[in-house]
DNA sequence: GGCCCCTGACTTTTT
DNA sequence: GTCAGGGGCC
């Protein structure tokens, strides 16, 4: 996100003449649409709901609609408000609109995520909610630290009432657009009856800190719109057309925000799929999309039902499952693609066998011995319900040397080292950022424990100054002495020095002699070092880089890499401020390298993606649908789980393989489970049952599966035959023969017994055995494991 | 102040 | 079974 620029957003209104000329003739892009898409693009005025099933070309319709709005002169680029949920989606839309327009969509300042757009708006109107326009956006860590302080101050036992819980409750209220005064009495009992009180205190603290959390971005804007009709009206007029992506994921605050903005002209186009609403647990309201026609009387509803992604069998399976849901608007996906393979279903004895089998399947697919064509690992994905399921696959793939990547997981900017570095940068830019100071006073260790930190807090409070100032005063008064004191002095002086570097040398003017007493405005020239150099200086001089260099844990090299990457990212920004702004909202870490890999991710993370081959393991009742979801949310929870199943199946283009295991180790305990009830909802005619005979000693499988297995004549099914043939081919006992030639011919590295080695996942260790391309390593932390040689590097090779 | 051990939790996650 | 966070001990 570029820093807010009024001209950009409101005045630099028109596309360049070049771009106007480059707009394609209407018929051109309209002819590329199917009738439903075309309708969704051409109905420009009034409310419209585009119900876009999975794989029906919704982004195409959405971006074409924007192009059409511009092309027909209905709106200038900066008069269109287009909102998405993720930065990825926003980026993609920008790119595609740009392509349609024949120039980068720079001229669309209001295409972005809910949050980034709200930041822009809130910076303009911050004073209306008692903030300054340079407010900071807190990350979840800061938020939690703040709440912990409040909880402690209120003398609440944070054992019984964890701050995390309070954070959840407050988030929930904010998602529902409830300011402390609006929290209904029914909810007031939350968090030991102190919830609302603490919520109010928290908001006060945020205001004092000139800070907001993510929820506030929306909530403050809703408040402003509700209490300042003049401001609202200004934007209602400005945003002539509104487009919303993934409408089924909106929460109440977002819904209100949209309704307020669309209140005048009602030119709002919401795109979504009620069947893909899977974020109810974080405040999304399927109701928003189900209610659309009531909210916007006279709304047009356009259904995009032609699917361009999957084969008929896959679509039929998905449709039949989702049919089990009561509350849905109803759609039927169809395609003119050729039949393809049936959805495959297989049961396993346990989770490990499931992982083993999938590993072999992937091998075979890649080698071309399974399916109609050889597949690249990039075309294959494994989608799980819960992240702990990934482990079995990681272990297995590591052992057999199958390259994989885990998508999702902790994001780049959530990592400890990135947050620490960011806290330093924040302090350098704004020395009064107390939360940032708290984070890094003693990181790296400076010998400043609880006592010293309390002294700083107390001094700051007594003098009514920031913590950095408080620390300075405490030092002057000799309140903090010894090693800690020296280190603190170094830190405080460092911060002042780095801060000065952000401003460059002072420029003195002839007419007014400048005295920098902190009140008179001082003019500064350009900084003498670039912000990139400055960042490096800060990390080095603060001792933070050294902290990780001296760290001997296996993660340390990776963390240093991340820090390097962070500094590299600065290149895309003009200064630290701009970067900080960006990073609090954005920044994902999707770089990956080194050849094709199987993707492993959660079903949630898979939304919006597609793969030729998809594996859906772990379809067991309790795991999927998740027991917890059903316990906590009953039928609503089950329906959301079912939508998750629908999302999973519809990710597949050519082959979809569903599997379940009779036994699985859960929290260290072996448990047996019934196949998922969703399996019973798969349509027989479109499913091929691969379950080998005799695997289930009767009674393990549900009657439905058993009868289905019988009907499908398992023993004669093509899949079963193929499996037999394949097993005959190279035998189950040593199925790994083709490995090296397929994956990596250079794999057989030579290691010697006793040699120190490093492994990305397991860390450091010593070689205790060698068998062909597999090396047995006794890891310092992870125990003894057999791993493929190519995943090991000699200890000196470790990148620093 | 730092390390170690014990306890308890344990679905999904963007901004 | 694993991990994180907190308490207690050195």
From TrEMBL:
Domain UvrD-like helicase ATP-binding: 31-311
Signal sequence range: none
Recorded GO MF terms: 3'-5' DNA helicase activity; ATP binding; ATP hydrolysis activity; DNA binding
GO biological process: recombinational repair; response to radiation
Positions of the UvrD-like helicase C-terminal domain: 312-608
Family matches, as CDD domains: DEXQc_UvrD, SF1_C_UvrD
GO cellular component labels: cytosol; DNA helicase complex
Superkingdom to which the source organism belongs: Bacteria
Keywords: ATP-binding, DNA-binding, Helicase, Hydrolase, Isomerase, Nucleotide-binding
Reaction(s) catalysed (UniProt annotation): ATP + H2O = ADP + phosphate + H(+); Couples ATP hydrolysis with the unwinding of duplex DNA by translocating in the 3'-5' direction
EC number: 5.6.2.4
Membrane spanning residue stretches: none
Top class in the EC scheme: isomerase
Chain's role: Has both ATPase and helicase activities. Unwinds DNA duplexes with 3' to 5' polarity with respect to the bound strand and initiates unwinding most effectively when a single-stranded region is present. Involved in the post-incision events of nucleotide excision repair and methyl-directed mismatch repair.
Protein family: Belongs to the helicase family. UvrD subfamily.
Name of the protein: DNA 3'-5' helicase
Source organism: Ruegeria intermedia
